[in-house]
Amino acid sequence: MSAAEGGTIPATMRALRKAAAGPGASLEEIPVPVPALGEVLVKVEAASICGTDLHIHRWDSWAENRIRNVPMTFGHEVAGRVVALGPEVHQLETGAFVAAETHLFCGHCGMCRTGRAHICENLRILGVDVDGAFADYLTLPAANAWVVDPRIPTDVASIQEPFGNAVHTAFPAGTDPDLTGSTVVVLGCGPIGLFVVGIARAAGAAQVVAVEPNEFRLDLAKRMGADVLVNPSAADPVQAVLAATRGRGAEVVLEMSGIPAVIDQGTRMLRHGGRLSLLGLPTERVSLDLTDQVIFKEARIFGVTGRELFRTWEQTTTFLATGMVDAGPVITHRFPLDRYEEGFDAVASGRSGKVVLVP
Amino acid sequence: MSAAEGGTIPATMRALRKAAAGPGASLEEIPVPVPALGEVLVKVEAASICGTDLHIHRWDSWAENRIRNVPMTFGHEVAGRVVALGPEVHQLETGAFVAAETHLFCGHCGMCRTGRAHICENLRILGVDVDGAFADYLTLPAANAWVVDPRIPTDVASIQEPFGNAVHTAFPAGTDPDLTGSTVVVLGCGPIGLFVVGIARAAGAAQVVAVEPNEFRLDLAKRMGADVLVNPSAADPVQAVLAATRGRGAEVVLEMSGIPAVIDQGTRMLRHGGRLSLLGLPTERVSLDLTDQVIFKEARIFGVTGRELFRTWEQTTTFLATGMVDAGPVITHRFPLDRYEEGFDAVASGRSGKVVLVP
Amino acid sequence: MSAAEGGTIPATMRALRKAAAGPGASLEEIPVPVPALGEVLVKVEAASICGTDLHIHRWDSWAENRIRNVPMTFGHEVAGRVVALGPEVHQLETGAFVAAETHLFCGHCGMCRTGRAHICENLRILGVDVDGAFADYLTLPAANAWVVDPRIPTDVASIQEPFGNAVHTAFPAGTDPDLTGSTVVVLGCGPIGLFVVGIARAAGAAQVVAVEPNEFRLDLAKRMGADVLVNPSAADPVQAVLAATRGRGAEVVLEMSGIPAVIDQGTRMLRHGGRLSLLGLPTERVSLDLTDQVIFKEARIFGVTGRELFRTWEQTTTFLATGMVDAGPVITHRFPLDRYEEGFDAVASGRSGKVVLVP
Amino acid sequence: MSAAEGGTIPATMRALRKAAAGPGASLEEIPVPVPALGEVLVKVEAASICGTDLHIHRWDSWAENRIRNVPMTFGHEVAGRVVALGPEVHQLETGAFVAAETHLFCGHCGMCRTGRAHICENLRILGVDVDGAFADYLTLPAANAWVVDPRIPTDVASIQEPFGNAVHTAFPAGTDPDLTGSTVVVLGCGPIGLFVVGIARAAGAAQVVAVEPNEFRLDLAKRMGADVLVNPSAADPVQAVLAATRGRGAEVVLEMSGIPAVIDQGTRMLRHGGRLSLLGLPTERVSLDLTDQVIFKEARIFGVTGRELFRTWEQTTTFLATGMVDAGPVITHRFPLDRYEEGFDAVASGRSGKVVLVP
Does the pTM of the predicted model rise above 0.80? Predict the structure, then answer.
């Protein structure tokens, strides 16, 4: 490990650990990890909470099936400063302020060799498959460290990973420029949905329709630039979209909820020739009316995951650094790391956007 | 009506009629229709039987829900000679040998005005919504008459419509050139599936995998150029495709069966980043594992219907007129129109490819 | 001719005529034309002046080579009310307020049959090949009449045709969504260049660079949303673009000037992988450094002309009717038709944007 | 350096050296290079001669301007066996049989980070900027070593690099599937042109037109699958293409000659909406009629260089390993390394396809 810049690296650190398979987590003192070949050691400055972290904390069935190694440190949306370099790191220097691309790719499968490392056939996820970011320090492959544009503030830096999900959902490879001038529907206004409302607005959507049952989030959607707000408890979203489009349907639907019935609605509000991008992850099978809603309409359904490496990060930087999208309203809470329980409670409360933990 | 070329048009003609809502059909003598404004009168030289015609003949639940006007003449895959012009027809002359594009479009909806008339928002189908082609004559909008390349023989001319379905499924708008050099799987080898085997072969697929339970059709798939034949009664198609691709999956899957379980298999045999085109029409909802098979793989699903007007017809002409694809092996039976029952039996038997009726 | 709505159609009208091959034009009293089969008669409410009209007025070498029939009425950017229908017009009614698509297409060539009628192989242009719009009335094929969105005011309605050129240059078929988040350079800020500045701004360009030697127009470019203004008399545009992009070059360059040296500059300011769209028409051959500026950079050059029928008109309607782009600042002058000389002088002065003539 | 497999690595080797700025080259005995960090040492088994090598040998003005460091070893189309690994090489083992991707990329510029390393902003070329392949051994970054499919024979393995140029010209990113069913013209039938004739044939071109003044090469083009042969000494290529397309022009033109007048012809033989890909490198500026041949036609011009990393190599493997394209007829000569002068003479003679040197 190279000498750190501006200070000594301690021997131990705090880390939020899942000690065993089961609910809960605890802040423990563990050794600061040593960056292996090709890795850097990052001193965490901000780490935001993802829905995935809540699953791991609660240890629901998803977590039970997915998490293979405990004990482990979780958290993956993170920005911090490089304080040490492992062997064979050449492009990065200590002192660099970086955010983490959380898809750890093998580099040699067919996807990695053809520019699609984000869907690597041997993919591992930071904070899920390897120790993550709710800690004072974490190690990260240098190839996964994205140098943050200096115009982006620290807590916004940590949300670039989910913001990149939003960017990638809006602009998957292989679409024509279909946001500009279109009706764009966002199904589900958690943080990623809120981000994509802002992105669609910045990209010149003719109108952005936000669908979300939680009024707190719906209000945030309005602040991010949504033109039409639909609370599905009060109005049928399909009818609302048809009404907003003179009966034609929306050119673009961006699905963030992962709820099967909502995905089905997504197909039914699509215009002929429209595009439905799926980012939200259903936990059960989804039943669709393919004949009438997909085939006869010639709809296109795009599965979307992660971020394109690193086209999406360049786009994300442009949106956030130039002020085209102000992610500020979405970041509703900040807590020190040791008050992590309050952070999880805030996420679970439904009265929050993004919650950031600061070590 | 203008004067016909080469002979008198009789007052009456034979037409295969669905007399009432219910099974069966009968060959009746009815007046020769008069071409209305913008229409032409076509003397039928070959009309092939589509699966849809079998549904109408049997009067199954699909037909019961879909067919609104009886009595009616059915049949829609047709080629014949223009023998008279209705008012306001300027681009066609009597004597022209034409095939029918069966999607009758309104010409003024948002789809029609943006080059997507085949998914017209006010679409009507020849032989389903208006009188069709199992007759001595039919009327057709001049805009739906495609002049047949003289290198294409008469019975092949009549199958250009389903062949065009195959072309359009292979090359939907908005894909990169993904057939050449790829593993292409065809699910279901009815006539359209058989055509698309030949098209994928001609387009330089690295290998074409044909999946079909009917051995007669599987043999035809081999004759059309399939490299790998999978009978799902004997082998799991998903495992067979994985085996043929060193575990990676297929870049392109073309779904022609409309069977929900097969569509589900289609998603499971797709490679990361792969494309699934859906042409077969499921009669019930389809349950999919979107998370693992579509989202994490970043698969793309394209609904496909009809033919692009008239890009697909140009492509179809090229494939058939240059000999790039020999559709001959698929045309297994020919009957005179009055032996239509034998024709329907041949289609139903499973020991047939395309069956052509000749008046 | 059907009965006109709301008033009698007079027997004669004023029309700005090119009486003979040579400079100048005169307002003459000629018979009101009678709409032929498939045509409508339009009472002109606003007709704006295009650079082409100036060429015809001056009778420069372009006009001498291009205009085949004199006497003729010129002018083609027009909006007005349908007052009579010729035979066989079914989709339009008298009273409709329409703008003219000026590319008159044959409807049956390979381009027309595959959704590219704007590059019809037998194209004729309104006001160039057939009598045009600087008159009280004009006839127009009904298929070329676009019903104007009621939110668009009359004089803006007449500039939809050049605005559509700008839209089509920004979004030609076959590009990825490359404006949003990119550096977009506009070379030449005549009216179409000014429109495209507004369009790139609305589509979320990271920065719009406007290059124009005329300070009056450069000021208009600023009002339309340009972030960086470059007067090539004062600064080298290539260096200016490199400076604005940290030496990388622009992702998108939209060429509106038609000046060979400027087109060459356009290639030299492109980033690797960038896109150069050419709308401006050079009157002589253009010499390019293809090896270093196109091939090694893998630049893409798109020729662009007219507007896609009618995808571009839908996009144009969205931009103008929703207020995404305010074309108002570009319309700098309005004159009654009989003061047409003042109109041409205003266009020639260089101290104008768009000049509209009102009968 | 790790221990070599199957034999001792000698201290010195033969290498074809450009000793000083000026014509000629000499086979010298120099030390075997030592693979640096991230590099491998490859024992050459076949190295084919590129036109670039002829330029370097002759020391023409291109070479004089381009080659910065002498003495140097040239040659870059190469296949051989990995016999030693430098530090930090993890994906490759000694014994692997590899071909060289000759574009040495930096890995951290904007192009490299967005999947376009072949147009890296800091690109260096093997055998041009660093020592190359006409030698017994060469060093190569492990990231540039492509493991050869075992079905591909040794000398074909060495021509995968120029074959990849042909593949990339045929299928640049961002085109629709435009080869299948199209008229494809190949301008210039040197080895890359000959390869692309075979590729267009395999991809289902409706017809392949080969234009080449050298009858020996024209005959090879026929063997590779060209349907129409045009010797521009005998017939005007533009007229020949128009004649072969009923006056319409070709959908796709692939320019391999780099001759300005031929590039101009390429634009004039394009159909409306057609695509011209430029791979041949003109040594002077090229004058084009952009207005009539590019803008009014809405032609698209794509600059093409190198190979997409590594999408093109996967496609190349498929074409060559499956037998879809037989590159055999193009490889006309084989010489031992020490008879290199005969090799260069054969290339210069015009009576050769590809010439392979074998150490």
Answer: yes
